[in-house]
Amino acid sequence: MYDRARLIELFHQRALRFGDFTLASGKKSSYYLDGKQITLHSEGLKLLSEGLLDLLEGIEFDAFGGMSLGADPIVGGVLTAAAARGKELAGFLVRKESKGHGTQKYLEGPVTPGMRVVIVDDVVTTGGSALLSVDRSIDFGLNVIQVVGVVDRKEGGAANFAARQLPFKSLLSIEDFGIKPPVVG
Ligand SMILES: O=P(O)(O)OC[C@H]1O[C@H](OP(=O)(O)OP(=O)(O)O)[C@H](O)[C@@H]1O
Ligand SMILES: O=C(O)c1cc(=O)[nH]c(=O)[nH]1
Fold this sequence. Notes:
This is Orotate phosphoribosyltransferase. This protein is of the alpha/beta class. The protein has a domain at 48-175: Rossmann fold. The chain contains six helices and eight strands. The strands form two sheets. It has a six-stranded mixed β-sheet with strand order 5-4-3-6-7-8, sandwiched between helices. A two-stranded antiparallel sheet has the order 1-2. Helix 1 (4-15) packs across helix 3 (42-55) and helix 3 (42-55) packs across helix 4 (72-84). The longest helix has 14 residues, at 42-55. It binds 1-O-pyrophosphono-5-O-phosphono-alpha-D-ribofuranose and orotic acid. Residues 24-25, 35, 67, 69-70, 121-129, 157 line the site of 1-O-pyrophosphono-5-O-phosphono-alpha-D-ribofuranose.
């Protein structure tokens, strides 16, 4: 069982910033969660990796991956935490841009078509980034069975995953930081 309260405290201390921000989706926001301040921190990565494995308890999957850069440290953390639990798991990273030379691949890692995979993102806003990972994974032949986020800002992501019949869970939501999400229609 991971220490959820401590993970929230770390996000509060290190990742949550107020100001004027433009998000990946082009939306404007008065706050920003810099997930990498947590995913690239020893205690933060350990906590969220344990938390994600707890969240995925009971779900059968072969591989865990997501869009680079947000997913990079998380995938490493979850694979290490899985090994400590005696669970074999493959990891993979999805490139934003095609490599353009060499293998020309979008997906990197020891995955093979037909594997049941979970897609992760550090912060989910509209879910657009996670859905791009989903589409590239499907194109590769993977069977996407679940999407997980570390923090859900609750700005349409869940509805967009539901529209694609993709189960979605997140470890934390923006409400854990006392922030009310906008009403999305
Ligand atoms: O749910 P969405 O609307 O897609 O927004 C969330 C995405 O935005 C951020 O990535 P960013 O595009 O900043 O890329 P980076 O992780 O490479 O910095 C974040 O890491 C998520 O991947
Ligand atoms: O929507 C985004 O781009 C976004 C929001 C946020 O709070 N943090 C982040 O890394 N990305």
